[in-house]
TrEMBL record:
GO terms for molecular function: aspartic-type endopeptidase activity; DNA binding. Pfam families: TAXi_C (PF14541), TAXi_N (PF14543). This is Peptidase A1 domain-containing protein. The keyword Cell membrane does not apply. It comes from the Eukaryota.
Length: 350
């Protein structure tokens, strides 16, 4: 399920007896959390807000527990662990840290450490909370540990699709034939999955104007690099890399009528009079020689019902680049943390 703010949702059962809730899929963060009664400040969600007093499997985590000490921001109240998580867009969640049973289909996982948020603000648009799938120690895949070999994959359906994708765990979730590339470790920010990207191509030509260090992590500060994030919609590139990509794309689309820019998108087209459109292929290339071409629908996205489409990239606000979920549509993306690999399988979403 995808909502207007750009996130993708999964349906998960919370507690005992189980109560199904929509959760945002987020590979860019670790902490799993849901909104909880009593609410001091909660946003609107699709399902009734979870009441922990109605679940026999809910258990508050103690202040001296190992999981409490692993939180980036924690406190203690009445012997119970408190958590706080803030996100780059200004959203945040604050509440008690606990363990609870989560149910995926017919499979239940007990004693999952989750945040029970009593004070939640942000653009979560209907979701009950967030399923942290990051690379850190408190993420859901890390908590599953050896049960799944710290491997999982997902496929995000197109935004205009009426079907749904899947989120799968375990080594068997990684499809044969995937294009694999190493994940890059950043000890300063262990939550993120950093890609070993070294180049971008347009129309089959590598852009020499994008130096490989544009996506390199600064070893002394941890800044820079490029991460893959299911919780971010639009791919944002370091400004120099974005400018080079945009200019090359424009050069290859001179035959298409232009339209005014919209919001963060500065390259838009009026395709209302066209039955079919040809655009130059955009490719991502990695340090081990692997690479893949983005589907055309992942490069131009509709902005309205009148035929306005925009180039689905934007400049980053910092030197950190992000591969967002628009560019991941229709691709089964797999994470093999045990072997520090990320995989891409085009058109293998079933």
């Amino acid at each position: 399920m995808e909502q207007g703010s750009g996130e993708y949702f999964t349906r998960i059962g919370i507690g005992t007896p189980t109560r199904e809730q929509y959760m945002v899929l987020d590979t860019g963060s670790d902490v799993v959390w849901i909104q909880c009664e009593p609410c001091r400040e909660c946003y609107s969600q699709a399902d009734p807000i979870f009441n922990p007093s109605s679940s026999v499997s809910f258990s508050t985590v103690g202040c001296d527990s190992a999981v409490c000490s692993q939180l980036d921001a924690n406190d203690c109240h009445g012997g119970g662990c408190l958590y706080e998580v803030s996100y780059g867009d200004g959203s945040y969640t604050v509440g008690s840290y606990a363990t609870e049973t989560l149910t995926f289909g017919t499979t239940s996982i007990q004693n999952v450490a989750i945040g029970c948020g009593h004070d939640n603000v942000g653009l979560f648009v209907g979701a009950a909370g967030l399923l942290g799938l990051g690379a850190g120690s408190l993420s859901f895949p890390a908590q599953l540990g050896t049960q799944t070999g710290r491997a999982f994959s997902y496929c995000l359906v197109d935004r205009d699709s009426e079907s749904s994708g899947t989120l799968e765990f375990g080594p068997e979730s990684v499809p044969i034939g995937s294009i694999f590339t190493p994940l890059v470790a950043n000890p300063f920010l262990p939550t993120f999955y950093y890609l070993s990207m070294v180049a971008i191509s347009v129309g089959g030509v590598i852009l020499d104007s994008v130096p490989s260090e544009a996506f390199r992590i600064d070893e002394t500060t941890g800044r820079g690099g490029i991460i893959i994030d299911s919780g971010t919609a639009v791919t944002r590139l370091q400004t120099s890399a974005y400018d080079a990509l945009r200019d090359a794309f424009i050069a290859g689309t001179q035959h298409l009528p232009r339209a005014d820019g919209i919001s963060i998108f500065d390259t838009c087209y009026d395709l209302s009079a066209l039955q079919s459109v040809s655009i130059p292929a955009v490719g991502f290339h990695f340090s081990n020689g692997a690479g893949f071409i983005l589907p055309a629908k992942n490069c131009l996205i509709p902005m309205d019902s009148m035929g306005t489409f925009c180039f689905a990239f934007a400049p980053a606000d910092s030197n950190l680049s992000i591969m967002g979920n628009i560019q991941q549509q229709g691709i089964r993306v797999s994470f093999d943390s045990a072997n520090s690999l990320v995989g891409f399988a085009i058109d293998q979403c079933q």
